[in-house]
Amino acid sequence: MENIHIISSFGGSTFKFLEDYSQVAVIVDENTIAYCYPLIEKLLPHHHLIEIKSGEERKNLDTCTDIWSRLTSLSFDRHAVVLNLGGGVIGDMGGFCAATYKRGIDFVQIPTTLLAQVDASVGGKLGVDFHNYKNHIGVFQEPAKVIVCPSFLKTLPERELRSGFAEVLKHGLIRKKIYWEKASQTKLQDQKWDEVIAESIHIKYEVVKADPTEKGLRKILNFGHTIGHAVESYLLEKRYRKLLHGEAVAVGMIAESYLAQQKGFITQKDLTEIQSCLLAIFGKAKLSASEIKEICAFALQDKKNQAGVIKASLLNAIGEANINQAISTQEVAEALLYYEGL
Ligand SMILES: NC(=O)c1ccc[n+]([C@@H]2O[C@H](COP(=O)([O-])OP(=O)(O)OC[C@H]3O[C@@H](n4cnc5c(N)ncnc54)[C@H](O)[C@@H]3O)[C@@H](O)[C@H]2O)c1
Ligand SMILES: [Zn+2]
Q1: What pTM was computed for the model?
Q2: What span, in angstroms and rounded, lies between the C-alpha atoms of 137 and 214?
Q3: What is the predicted pLDDT for the residue at 300?
């Protein structure tokens, strides 16, 4: 975890390492420039701001073109550095732009949402959406540093906080039962975020360290994401209705837990516990039968699939997951119909 720093506040020495770079750019959106940039502005050396518009619908190659254009017009060389000050959208896209600009310059992740702090900023996955397929174009590249400061969460809207919490619960479900129990039994407003962030980063870090390029174990982190990404991608295409990433993953975790129960991997009691907890926190997303049919087509594009077969990571118990479980589009549809019937 040498490049990940969890700090309680920013100090005079936090950004001293930036003195070694030729130039510094900070990527922000309209929210992080208003709420997060003021916490670090005075501590940064001379730098350029690159402001983009927030939102998953901007996480695409058009926005990358804008970022690459700015870096080019600022004459950034290969000794320059990019700071990504924002949630997972800025982290994934700013990191991707840096990792490919002039074959790669350094970048620093400064995650400002819970989701980015516990998940997106750890593990070196970078990229953008393409033709409404989530994270379809991207690379693996580790940041020079990740600076995690829970203070940013004070201004984060509650819905965004809850979305990030889905990944926290996922970490417990796939890896550590007592963490799931503690996190799922504590109200959102009573969570000790510094402890939660440290525990989740630790779980994700250990998994990624064992399998950085997702040949095996790392796939457990995709629990809930095979169906969750399909739901998220479908709604992204529709535009009229949107689920946040964590909200879609919560749908996916219930649907995929149902499949695990149907295959005899987890008990009915486990399924009931998982679904009642997730529904209590995230509520119910409405999906019609015709929408479910279309969502199945998106599941066929998942990056874990092999030779046209959908491969999911399904729970084997609370706290354990099995990778490479073949599921059919029929099963995806059945699982979503089960979810809708709850
Ligand atoms: N790379 C990975 O391993 C990985 C893992 C999980 C998710 N992701 C990606 O992360 C993205 C979702 O990230 P997200 O949930 O952080 O969403 P996001 O980046 O869209 O941020 C959510 C919203 O919160 C605002 N915001 C950010 N910080 C704030 C703060 N401190 N105060 C007030 N407002 C703030 C942003 O402007 C935005 O409007 C998805 O694109 C997903 O694919 C990547
Ligand atoms: Zn996720």
Answers
A1: 0.95
A2: 16
A3: 85
Mark the ranges of the chain whose per-residue pLDDT is less than 70.
Answer: none
- Is residue 212 a contact partner of residue 314, using CB atoms and an 8 Å limit? no
**Which of the listed residues 51, 245, 249, 253 should we mutate to test ligand 1's pocket, taking the one with most ligand atoms within 8 A of CB?**
245
Ligand nearest to the CA of 225: 2
Which ligand lies nearest the alpha carbon of 120? 1
146 pocket-lining for ligand 1 (C-beta < 6 Å): no
89, 121, 135, best to mutate for ligand 1 pocket (most atoms within 8 Å of CB): 89
End-to-end CA distance of the chain: 41
Quick: pLDDT tens for 242-288.
899 999 999 999 999 999 999 999 999 999 999 999 999 999 999 99
Query: String of b and e for 312-329 (b: at least 16 CB within 10 Å)?
Result: bbbbbebbebbbebebee
Atom in ligand 1 nearest the alpha carbon of residue 126: 1
> Given this model, what pLDDT does residue 238 score?
80
Residue having the nearest C-alpha atom to atom 5 of ligand 1: 120
The alpha carbon of 110 and the centre of ligand 1 are apart by a number of angstroms equal to 11
Say which ligand is closest to the CA of 35: 1
The beta strand positions in the chain, using DSSP E, are 4-6, 24-29, 48-52, 81-86, 106-111, 125-130, 133-140, 145-148, 310-317, 320-327
What per-residue confidence (pLDDT) applies to 70? 98
